Amino acid sequence: MKGESPLVAPWQRQRSCPATLGELPPLLDMVREACAHMDAPQDMAHDLLLMAEEACVNIMRHAYPEGADGTLLLRVRCTHRGVELVLQDRGIPFDPLAAEPPDPLLDAMDREIGGLGVHLIRQLADRVDYRRDPALGNVLVIEKHLPPVS
């Protein structure tokens, strides 16, 4: 039907790894694989990769105290609506959705460092949810929908 997204076969991958920057390439490869599976438009694939990179790097840099080992789990799932990214860590509780958005009217030199990645994710995603789970820790869900078929 006009305006609906095409049907896509179920697809899911996940990877649990140390929360270190060296683990970023294989995590982003999973997102690329999902985009290829969905035959996602180039702009959608770009947005998903950017959001995945921002979210993963935030966990890698800020979730665990300096010198502490920690893990990151990324689950990438294709649905009939698009691609869902689920990120989990057992680091310091942090709700990125509670963070104040940056003031776009401030000069770059007057802004506090940080917060732009979370703002970017909010702007690019079709859905973003956060919860602190007693067993899983921080759980961030990012969803990007396929564009309607014209």
TrEMBL record:
CDD domains, A to Z: HATPase_RsbW-like (cd16936)
Cross-referenced InterPro entries: Anti-sigma-factor_SerPK, HATPase_C_sf, HATPase_dom
One Pfam family name is HATPase_c_2
Q: Say if the entry is tagged with keyword Kinase.
A: yes
Report domain Histidine kinase/HSP90-like ATPase positions.
18-142
Keyword vocabulary terms for this entry: ATP-binding, Kinase, Nucleotide-binding, Serine/threonine-protein kinase, Transferase
Query: Annotated Gene Ontology MF terms?
Result: ATP binding; protein histidine kinase activity
Q: EC?
A: 2.7.13.3
Protein name, UniProt field: ATP-binding protein
